[in-house]
Amino acid sequence: MTGTGTDPGRWNVLDGVVGVSGALAVGSALLAIGHLGVQLPVISRFGPAGARAVVPAAIAFGVAACLHGTVAVGVTRRRSWAWPLGVLVAGITLIGAATPFRGAASAVGIVLATTQLDLLLTRPARRTILNSAGS
User: Fold this and answer.
1) Using 50, 70 and 90 to split pLDDT, how confident is the model at 42?
2) C-alpha closest to that of 33 among 4, 79, 65
3) Do 18 and 78 contact (CB within 8 A), yes or no?
4) Is-contact 93 66, C-beta < 8 A?
């Protein structure tokens, strides 16, 4: 995904960050669509009741999808700004998923955001992303 190098563990961590960020981007986009009142198989069971639109939540999930996607692209391209953005977005996602807790959908968000944060805070990820030549 993000390339190879002399330290394979370093690249595996970055691949994990990209994968989790991508999963959060796709999941947030699906939740944004679901909160617009569009019926989606499986996703609609976790969202608002019926076809009722919750526009503020749809906007929040849409913004989250864009931010997580931006983190994935930034880490893939080894941009130094991707690390602080990733930590910030993962932290906000973790808080947003935990408060208020809404069952399985929140639990998935908490697990993914915690994983993203954990991967970003490892020394290899932090060192590689922050010391990138292409800022």
Assistant:
1) confident
2) 65
3) no
4) no
**CA 78 to chain centroid:** 17
pLDDT in tens, 46-74: 655 557 788 999 999 999 999 999 999 99
Tokens 């989790």 — which residue?
20
Alpha carbon of 121 to those of 2, 41, 111, 130, 132: distances in Å?
Answer: 18, 35, 15, 11, 16
This prediction has a pTM of: 0.84
CA distance 8 to 15: 11
- Quote the CA–CA distance of 121 and 135 in Å, as a whole number: 19
